[in-house]
Amino acid sequence: MKLKGFDWIVSAHFSIFAYSILKSSSKIDHQKFNSQKSIIKNQNPPYLHPMNFPVVFYDGDCGFCNRSVQFILDHERNPEIHFCALQSEKAKAFFETNRFPQPDLSTLYFWNGKQLYQRSTGALRITGYLKAPYSWLKVFLVVPRFIRDGVYNWVAKRRHRFAAGQCALPTPEQRKRFI
Predict the structure, then answer these.
(1) Are 170 and 178 in contact (CB under 8 A)?
(2) N vs C: which end of the chain shows fewer Cβ within 10 Å?
(3) Residue 116: strand pairing partners
């Protein structure tokens, strides 16, 4: 298809915008981490606490978070994601030994085996492990992080209102993936 006039300009601006978004999401040194960053990367591999598989770190006392874990279990393509409550000793050891900042209970963290993502970036990275149409949500990574995290923070503040403190009992096979 040949682009003409205004269409060409719009296409060029979108390409530049998409490139700048991808370029700005480069890896971040964990020592320069602040609460606004979505990627937390330890620059001292190999990792002291070896987890070379995807792990979702979540608030184990939050009904909304537990429902989110159940949603992932019900809709993932392959049973490869593991789960760890932020309140657990394993989570504390993981964050401490890898010199990541102390986790915030209102934040979801996603470890893909190499990098630690948080807030909206973590949630959208998880969607890549889900079946369609949920995996298509990963396209929202092109939305600027301050907008995505604004929505994430709004939901996080109200998460206890959205779902009561209940959780489904995982099957014996699923229980093996809880750390």
Answers:
(1) yes
(2) N
(3) 40, 111
